[in-house]
Amino acid sequence: MAGEPPQDVQHPHADAAMARPGGRTARVREAVIDATIAELSEVGYAALRVDAVAARAGVNKTTIYRRWGTKVGLVSMALIERRGRLVPPADTGTLRGDLIGLLKEIRLGLKVPWVAALQREAGPRTAANADLYELLDRFWSARFKVSGVIFERAVERGELPAGTDPGFLLEMISGPLYFHWLMLGRPLDDDFLERMADFTLHGAQAGPPAAG
Amino acid sequence: MAGEPPQDVQHPHADAAMARPGGRTARVREAVIDATIAELSEVGYAALRVDAVAARAGVNKTTIYRRWGTKVGLVSMALIERRGRLVPPADTGTLRGDLIGLLKEIRLGLKVPWVAALQREAGPRTAANADLYELLDRFWSARFKVSGVIFERAVERGELPAGTDPGFLLEMISGPLYFHWLMLGRPLDDDFLERMADFTLHGAQAGPPAAG
After folding, report:
1. Structure confidence at residue A165 (pLDDT)
2. Dist. CA B188–CA B183, nearest whole Å
3. Complex ipTM
4. Which residues of chain B neighbour A183 with C-beta distances below 8 Å?
5. What residues of B are in contact with residue A174 (Cβ under 8 Å)?
6. How far is it, in rounded angstroms, from Cα A102 to Cα A147?
């Protein structure tokens, strides 16, 4: 046990992975995640087929169904594994800086082909993708929880009034970005992101709605 | 000619329509629009088939292809005919009132099943619906042109600074509404719309970006 490598060390060599208990399971898992992401990048979510993922990963289709259930389960697992480790936005010292940082982070994510394909095809809720709603709820809830810290910091700094609602403000700043990119099909250039940040800065100072 | 009814009177009775030159053409057109909208409401855009529209309208499929070309042409025609007559938002006397009026108008549109189906399925730009981009560009351009008057009036009233960019502000107010409804799957209640209006009111006062 003393000579055992730390659990988080990666073993690119298959034999090394197989030598450990759980090595094959972990290897199959990684191969399936890679194959899922490659398929998402190529054909998107709607056209993704579990048997194409299985063929690409070199595993039996039944292995995938047994472990992850359905296409939704498979994509959820890939999404959580590769995008689940959300890092709180860096503290730039000002709300304006933090807002621009957040917008640039979202833009960076949307430059990853499989993330963009997933957002375009599976992000909007349609009758056809109702099986994804639960995953989407978890995704946005996790994302908002981590990103909301920006507005909490701004309240602490005295830049925003107490009682500010981070969830509402995250909708106000994320909404136009997705609308611009997804619905209008326009580029997310720096100038646009900065104008959005300034707009949000002023809008947020409206504060919570007056009681009554 | 003196006894001719005004052009805008509708003839629900087929014989009356057939008695006029162009009567059959107009009747087929109305039947095809009705059938397109009924199919959109039932199956959405992605699953809509031209032969199902033809069968429902009681016309030959080739008639539709000859007159409107493709599925995109057909849906464009239905959209322009039934949603193309955009009316400028009513002047409530204040920017806040106008913003709430605009948001409620958009919400009302999204309560129409075929409009909602079209926005959910065909609004977001994917690789699969690239044939719709031109239609979407025309749709948003027309919509923004008509709705932008809200911000022009606010500048005239002195509520917003000169140089205000109506297109940018329309993105800022429409974006969160579509994000909330389409991506988060949440209801558009009055409270949310009013908070959005207050946020936009303050955000818009940030004015155009400083030169340099």
Report:
1. 95
2. 13
3. 0.84
4. 123-125, 136, 140, 178
5. 176, 179
6. 8
Chain B contact for A52 (CB, 8 A cutoff): no
Nearest to A185 among B133, B174, B180 (CB): B133
Residues 176-195 of B with CB under 8 A from A: 176-180, 182-185, 191, 194-195
Instruction: Decide if A72 contacts A78 (C-beta within 8 A).
Output: no
Tokens 């403000």 correspond to A169
**pLDDT tens digits along B179-195:** 999 999 999 999 999 99
Predicted confidence (pLDDT) per residue in A93-113, tens digit: 999 999 999 999 999 999 999
The whole-number pLDDT of residue B211 equals: 41
Distance, in Å, from the CA atom of A3 to the CA atom of B107, rounded to the nearest integer, reads 64
Residue A89 DSSP label:
P
Asked if the C-beta of A210 comes within 8 angstroms of chain B's C-beta atoms, the answer is: no
Domains contained in chain B, CATH given = 14-83 (1.10.357.10), 95-204 (1.10.357.10)
Output the CA angle A189-B180-B159, nearest 5 degrees: 70
- Following DSSP, what letter does each residue of A24-55 receive, concatenated? HHHHHHHHHHHHHHHHHHHHTTTT--HHHHHH
Contact criterion met (CB < 8 Å) for A172 and B176:
yes
Q: Which residues of chain A have pLDDT under 70?
A: 1-22, 207-212
Angle at A144 between CA A143 and CA A149, to 5 degrees: 110
**What pLDDT score does A29 carry?**
94
Q: Where would I find the H helices in chain B?
A: 14-19, 23-43, 50-57, 61-68, 71-83, 95-110, 113-122, 133-147, 149-157, 166-178, 190-204
Please answer yes or no on whether B172 and A177 come within 8 Å at the CB atom.
Answer: no
